[in-house]
Amino acid sequence: MKQYFKLDEWKIIEEGFNAEHQQIAESVFSLGNGRMGQRANFEEAYSGETLQGNYVAGVYYPDKTRVGWWKNGYPEYFAKVLNAANWIGIDIIIDGEQLDLAKCEVASFRRELNMKEGYLKRNFRAKTVNGKEVEVEAIRFCSMADDETGAIKYTLTPINFNGPITITPYIDGDIKNKDANYDEKFWDEVKKQANPNGGYVQLKTKKTGFEVATGMLFTISQEGKVRPVEKEKYVAAKVDLLAEQSKPITIIKYAANLSSQNYKAENLVEQLNQTLDRVSKKGFDTMLAEQAAAWAAKWKHNDIIIEGDVAAQQAIRFNIFQLNQTYTGEDDRLNIGPKGFTGEKYGGSTYWDTEAYCVPFYLATADPKVTRNLLLYRYKQLGKAIENAQLLGFKDGAALYPMVTMDGTECHNEWEITFEEIHRNGAIAYAIYNYVRYTADEAYLEDYGLEVLIAIARFWSQRVNWSEAKQQYVMLGVTGPNEYENNINNNWYTNTLAVWCMQYTLDVIVKVKAADSAKYNALISKISFNEGVEFARFTHIIQNMYYPYDEQQQVFLQQDGYLDKEQILVKDIPIGERPLNQKWSWDRILRSCYIKQADVLQGIYFFEDRYDIDTIRRNFDFYEPRTVHESSLSPCVHAILAAKLGDEARAYEFYLRTSRLDIDDYNNDTEDGCHITSMAGTWMAVVEGFGGMRVKDGKLSFNPFLPDKWQSFSFNVGFRGALLNVKISKAGVDIKNLSDTQITVLVHGEEREVKYSG
Amino acid sequence: MKQYFKLDEWKIIEEGFNAEHQQIAESVFSLGNGRMGQRANFEEAYSGETLQGNYVAGVYYPDKTRVGWWKNGYPEYFAKVLNAANWIGIDIIIDGEQLDLAKCEVASFRRELNMKEGYLKRNFRAKTVNGKEVEVEAIRFCSMADDETGAIKYTLTPINFNGPITITPYIDGDIKNKDANYDEKFWDEVKKQANPNGGYVQLKTKKTGFEVATGMLFTISQEGKVRPVEKEKYVAAKVDLLAEQSKPITIIKYAANLSSQNYKAENLVEQLNQTLDRVSKKGFDTMLAEQAAAWAAKWKHNDIIIEGDVAAQQAIRFNIFQLNQTYTGEDDRLNIGPKGFTGEKYGGSTYWDTEAYCVPFYLATADPKVTRNLLLYRYKQLGKAIENAQLLGFKDGAALYPMVTMDGTECHNEWEITFEEIHRNGAIAYAIYNYVRYTADEAYLEDYGLEVLIAIARFWSQRVNWSEAKQQYVMLGVTGPNEYENNINNNWYTNTLAVWCMQYTLDVIVKVKAADSAKYNALISKISFNEGVEFARFTHIIQNMYYPYDEQQQVFLQQDGYLDKEQILVKDIPIGERPLNQKWSWDRILRSCYIKQADVLQGIYFFEDRYDIDTIRRNFDFYEPRTVHESSLSPCVHAILAAKLGDEARAYEFYLRTSRLDIDDYNNDTEDGCHITSMAGTWMAVVEGFGGMRVKDGKLSFNPFLPDKWQSFSFNVGFRGALLNVKISKAGVDIKNLSDTQITVLVHGEEREVKYSG
User: Fold this and answer.
1) Is B344 within 8 Å of B749 (Cβ atoms)?
2) d(CA B148, CA B255)
3) In chain B, which residues have pLDDT < 50?
4) How far apart are CA A635 and CA A646, in angstroms?
5) Distance (Å, rounded) from C-alpha A582 to C-alpha B626?
6) What spatial distance separates the first Cα and last Cα of chain B, rounded to whole Å?
7) In 3D, which of A723, A715, A753 has the Cα closest to residue A739?
8) Burial class (CB in 10 A: 0-12, 13-18, 19+), A572
9) Measured between alpha carbons, how far is B554 from B575 in angstroms, rounded to an integer?
10) For the purposes of burial, counting CB atoms within 10 Å of the CB of B512, is it exposed (0-12), middle (13-18) or buried (19 or more)?
11) SS3 for B631?
12) H or E element: which one contains B465?
């Protein structure tokens, strides 16, 4: 399915009704506001293939783990994203027949996602089996301005008939997760009420006890006979009316989702009613205008404009749009699931994707508090990360953050990942470094950062062991970012990251101690940090760590023994055998030299300043031809490094592999949801790759180039109070300051003062 | 639970009723005859904790696989042992109250397994809640002489009452497997019939379609009113009679299990009736006498007598007894499950245990056809082993035998085992070598053996790869016998075994070609063996294989990088942290130096003649202190090597760890069933360890020693038509020939003629 959707700079457009693409479209047209979200399911009934999805951020269920063979240390439960009550439903019965596009003759169909203003619009004209023709326009959004609410304006016009129509707006909480290990339902009903003009259902999750009240208020432009209906976890109002040919009937449905995370459970309904009152008084058009204004503010901070390539323009905006729909940084209990609000897959919410890929995006495109909240999310889960490490046999306050989590508890159970893909711990430390480097918010280190860093450094110091044979420290039994290798020894990336973590921790200790010794002393007393002993141990490891290296090719070795593998390059694998993860058995993949995603190169990306350009080039030229890029997170790092190496054509090629991943369904899996976290990687490819943006000694630095196919591109980034528009065109690099904070940047290494430019 | 059972040279005895030991006793007192078997459940109802188990050899169900995370190459189904119809049941209702030891006051209880004659006897005296006292004696066995049948003699004597008793012999096929991934029942009813003196149930397995007819005929010593009863998958006859105080009532129940593996399904009932007629005409006492005779014949071939240590005597006989109950070698479709007929655990039937541990036992203690049938079992599954290898990406007739199987299909799904614990393939080749070495049956190679060997050699030749770095062949991504290491490179044992397989295959090719070139040509044509190319490839690998070795300590290295691990010896692990597999997380075990069971030492055991005694000692002294023996298969190999090294005390110590494993429930898991295959290891410890028995140049050789605590020990072994009794006492080594085949053996390296000695 290439280019199924129409090209447009600000919209995603589907024309014509194709049932076989319905689930892909449901993913791509998904809506969200950071607090809640939903797939682009239809308001009216649809009996075709569909994945129904409504999600409330932070509400999860600990599903009992399913394993083949239990390994000591596995978590018993897997917290997963919950499919929540459907608030979009509006059943339409025309003369006794359910309006259902799977059964109608559909004369025209158009769906568009307006990314500029943040709403979904659908128009269609269809004829029922009984020959009744209708035209429908449905507009809906999840409000960014009022993030517990959403609204729908559904207008139905009879084309060729007068007659009875029953319109049934409803809330349906009798929902089943597609992803449920033992086929259970996860919600219990607390209470509900159906009224003539609305209603609510209050549900409670099993085990976790989250309560969510979902309610609606609606108006219909034409009078009718109303019958409230209540069923299990379901409320509705059936409205019978007589439709007139060519006379539009407009249903406006206001909805709200309130959760016991933010209110006392016993007050939810009262709060819900107040919220619904407020938005319905505002009215649909005002809400929609607020929505456009909220999105305009977002775009001001983070739009990217590409001239001369509509497909690229559409794609980059789609990626930015989805990232903003998924996470707004308002709440430090929330995080960024790999599928956001677009599907259930990958169950848990938080992966190392957040720190490694999403943090750079939010740092540059949002208020610093957004990233700070992502950091605080981990800070608040430090206790659980320490427990998690204890479960695996670590001690003395060492923390291992989970591979996948909702609330800090490990949710993954595959030993080679759960127990061994520990580089995630380093990414969490790196994000702290990245945040401080970008924002200069040194106070964060004193208040929160150092505590996390010490716990992580303690983990690494226990996780390495002294090798008598090598007379160096080694790290055995790990899985690097390249998950096509498991249980390897001395993964260069992990060893490098671990030592960096320990060094950075020591640096921060010195800094914090100097800045505020009282705070420092309080901290080390709280966490029983033995400065003498632990400082010495960290230092000894830093000075005596082993890193695999190949003298002959002068490259860092991905792990011990990597060069024992048969070295056939990716280009020489027969086409029919790819993707490897579908065509090869797992053992064959494991013993091959093929790399899923940047591993040594991820380390070079993180610590670019340490390596001269020849070293970067040698490693890139060695590893990239062995990389199959079978993770959506792979191409962006390669794009950035290719750009760094001046290989503009390849940088562009890598960028293309991710930018339209979901819109064009490259991996045949968009129906499960969109690859939200990899969208941040696409942004990185443009800004850090083509734009060459870095932070150098507290200044933003740009080494941009213009891809051949583009006339120009520009991006907005914020930095320490300034808001810049950076435009790269054939004419050169033009930087405008959209704020009144004067700033000095580097362009191709030269300092440039950028003043407010109106 | 140490020494719960009483010591006796020929019996296992339980005295007193202990509900908390019931499931352990059910395992230890299990009965079987190679064709069918059962746990020692009670005949009458029992409402306490119990694991009901009746099994019919070769009847399995492919349960849908349960995995946490699917890996390419995993099998979809897991064939597992089926719990089959219960034929032992006899309900007793006394004056309206069910006789049930869980509810009675039990005045006395004794259970004994008579291993000499092959039956289980149970006596008890109990008082019901209503105050009725009865005495019961129950004797039962699975007939060795007539292996589709079994019989029970159940005698009940009212002690303190006259009154109504209802006796209900039944067959119950409404059975659930404890081990069922999705809680399904695996049997459907085909037909059934309840008669006044018996009845049958014919069941069919879902998916596999095995049909099994289970029937009974019974007599009761006292007249009563009979009502046949039929329920789903259940037949019974309720017999109401009036019992008289002190007058024994004897129920004799004859049972038979016939399977569609051996008869047409439509004839099963007719055959079943003939079988039941035959045995009932014979009568219980005649059957029991035949049973004693059949067991006398077994014991003649394989008894071990230990003087001066009753516990050791009892234990070794228990192990021999269970091995004979599990596999008799009558049928080349059957094999030896790790739990035999004593439980469902480990689901599948066949592991490499058979070739590595059981083959030596059966070679020495049974007719050569018994081992030959174990070999033919694998020969007949060669096609599936080739398919299995294809699934993983191998080609050109390479075979990978499954880790666990019933019918040749892989049934295990844990990537590090299923795909990587490939040394099993070598054990299958080694068993062929071992069989031919022991029996001199060279024709087996021509007819079957070579075809298997070539397929296995082909696998190894594809599984290795050329390392440009080492300029040698390497084998990456394997798991050795030490399953506490996964996905390692160049496991010394696997590399050694693989090369040995290729060399042995080449040797056998030369031999077979010389012996019968027509047969050889037919074979290589059938399997498209390209002699020139493949011979050369095997040879190149044999000559250029890499084996990890440590120059400093002069030991074979278990795998690449083993010496990077922290080398703390097992004796220095705090007691509370063992067994590691219960106390440590899986990743911690993996990165430790601790060894689950013989790995390098397994190779040294297999290829002992290659290594001088110093090499063996260096490796033993290096690896044993790092071995936790957390597999029941571990101590025997260590006992044999310790004996070889002259360390008699340690050899004896290792022997003790396995000999009473189940009787004394060392691992707290006997309730799941007995460790059948490790029992062969115990036999090996005595005969190959203390007896120092080997085959040297076509002769049996003995280098025995007498453990300090024993006065003497003797064992019977067969070898190429001769049957020997070898007795080691303080007086020296006495060898008697129980057969009329003269034979020359080596004793401490000296030839000794052994003639028939009456």
Assistant:
1) no
2) 8
3) 1
4) 16
5) 40
6) 44
7) A723
8) exposed
9) 30
10) buried
11) coil
12) strand B465-467
- Work out whether the CA dihedral A569, A573, A579, A585 comes out positive or negative: negative
For residue A458, the distance in angstroms to the closest alpha carbon of chain B comes to 16
Question: Is the Cβ–Cβ distance between A595 and A628 less than 8 Å?
Answer: yes
Which whole-number Å values give the CA distances from B398 to B72, B401, B418, B525, B527, in the listed order? 19, 10, 16, 15, 10
Helix axes B450-463, B531-543, angle to 10 degrees: 60
Question: How much is the pLDDT for A1?
Answer: 46
Q: Which amino acid is at A137?
A: E
Would you call B473 helix, strand, or coil by DSSP? strand
- Minimal C-alpha gap between B292 and chain A (Å): 43
Closest CA to B343 of B660, B22, B35, B38: B38
Tokens of B380: 């007949």
Locate A641 and state its tokens: 């490094």
Is B471 in the A-facing interface, judged by CB distances under 8 Å?
A: no
For A151-194, give the secondary structure using H, E and C.
Answer: EEEEEEEECCCCEEEEEEEEEECCCCCCCCCCCCCCEEEEEEEE
pLDDT of B2 reads: 65
In angstroms, rounded to a whole number, what is the distance separating the alpha carbons of residues A247 and A597? 57
Q: Which of A465, A477, A489 sits opposite B587 (nearest CB)?
A: A477
Catalytic residue among A483, A485, A624, A630: A483
ipTM above 0.90 for this complex = yes
Q: With residue B121 as reference, give the H or E element that holds it.
A: strand B119-127
Alpha-carbon distance of B159 to B163, in angstroms, equals 11
Task: Report the distance separating Cα A240 and Cα B505, nearest Å.
Answer: 84
Q: Show the tokens assigned to B185.
A: 């029942």
Chain B residues closer than 8 Å to A584 by CB: 72, 393
CA dihedral defined by B625, B629, B634, B636, rounded to 10 degrees?
70
Q: B393 and A560 in contact by Cβ < 8 A?
A: no
pLDDT score of B348: 67
In angstroms, what separates the C-alpha of A79 from chain B's closest C-alpha?
A: 14
Query: Taking a C-beta distance cutoff of 8 angstroms, is the pair A153, A289 a contact?
Result: no
Q: Are A442 and A518 in contact, with CB atoms under 8 Å apart?
A: no
CB B630 within 8 A of CB B592: no
| CA nearest neighbour of A662 among A8, A26, A10 | A26
* Residues sharing a CB contact under 8 Å with residue A540, sequence separation 6 or more, in sequence order: none
Q: How many CB atoms lie within 10 A of CB A413?
A: 24
A239-270 tens-digit pLDDT: 999 999 999 999 999 999 999 999 999 999 99
Burial string for B641-651 (b: 16+ CB within 10 Å, else e) reads bbbbeebbebb
Instruction: Show the low-confidence residues of chain A (pLDDT under 50).
Output: 1
- Residues near B281 by beta carbon (within 8 Å), at least 6 away in sequence: none
- Residue burial A678-717, b: 16+ Cβ < 10 Å; e: rest: bbbbbbbbbbbbbbbbbbeeeebbbbbbbbeebeebbbbb
For A313, list phi and psi in degrees, rounded to 5: -60, -50
Q: Which residue stretches of A487-568 are H helix?
A: 492-515, 517-526, 531-543
List of chain A residues whose C-beta atoms are within 8 Å of the C-beta of residue B587: 73, 392, 415, 419-420, 477
Query: How do beta strands B549-550 and B555-556 pair?
Result: antiparallel
- Catalytic position from the list B410, B483, B485, B671: B483
Chain B interface includes A44 (CB < 8 A): no
B184 in catalytic set: no
CA distance A11 to A115: 6
